[in-house]
TrEMBL record:
Pfam families: RNase_H_2. This is Elongation subunit of DNA-dependent DNA polymerase. Signal peptide: none annotated. PANTHER family: EXONUCLEASE-LIKE PROTEIN (PTHR38462), YPRB RIBONUCLEASE H-LIKE DOMAIN-CONTAINING PROTEIN (PTHR38462:SF1). Residues 26-193 form the YprB ribonuclease H-like domain. GO terms for molecular function: nucleic acid binding. SUPFAM superfamilies: Ribonuclease H-like. It comes from the Bacteria.
Amino acid sequence: MKHWHEEMPFTADDSLAELIFTENSLFFDIETTGFSAARTSLYLIGCAARKENLLIVDQFFAETPADESDVLHAFLDYLQNFDTIITFNGIGFDIPYLTNKCQKYKIPEPFSAYEYVDIYKMISGFRFLFALPNLKQKTVEQFIGLEREDAYNGGELIDVYKACQKNPDKKLISLLKQHNYEDVIDMPKLLSVLSYVKLFEGAFNVTSVCANESVSYDGKPCREILFSMQNIFPVPKRVSCHYEDFHLVVDTDQTTLCVRLYTGELKYFLSDYKNYWYLPEEDLAIPSSLAASIPKERRKKATAGTCYKKKNAIFVPQYQEIQKPAFRLMFKDKKSYFELSEDFVASSEMQKEYCMHVLQFICKKKL
């Protein structure tokens, strides 16, 4: 087994990396000859840790498959110094693979005792926002502007490792080392992609709100409300998306949410419709106490769909009743609206609650 160790100056690129990548956390990535732990070999584990202003990289390399157990033991001994594991798809692949190898060598499985930050798992619901063909580590690195010297992927290096068994050439070993090395040293920089996740979790402050006249995406005149938000964690690249009434633009420090308003008449449906009568000619629901004076042929018992009060105003769309009263076009509509009021325009708390609602709705619908 070979053990490569390197130390280099390190400065966190942003506040999010500073927050997540502490001296108690460890990045790691494994290289194997396939996906099945039962039928393939583990040949390299690379780790990146932080010590004050240093990035410390350790790599454990199996020169032959017989070294696999030594590599696993060396890594597990090193892992004891940390309490948090940071990976890219480690929960989906690396950890289950290593757990199976622990079972093979009758080593107690330590992984359940750790906290995890899996970058891939955390961003997997945001592919719609990034507009990427996939979420492979190299693809995400390119998205945020990281460049690699290594031109290979893990699958292509399997044959390189097999060639090393026949002829342990230094150049071939260097290819294997370099690929894993770049995987782990780029992981701290990859943390910046989690800024989008943090934004959708509420890491922003609404700085201004304004309503104005505009032209919608389909070319029709409309009225809209614009929320300007300060990102608590800067994002590495400008992205945008559109869904129904909402248009979202996320830029370095600033996020803008544009919402198309509804101007006109909507209905507020009353829940106690059994206590009302409906007047079809007037399109009006009245309490039972007032219905006795109305001729029977002009009234009928109200239903859930005919018991409402109408209002003309400017309304804001919502898909949960976070603001009440909730108005609708039709009784069974999932989308409801609340009136754009002075209280809403003046309340940063209400505005943030609404922006959170929209972000979560967009994320859910785009999955």
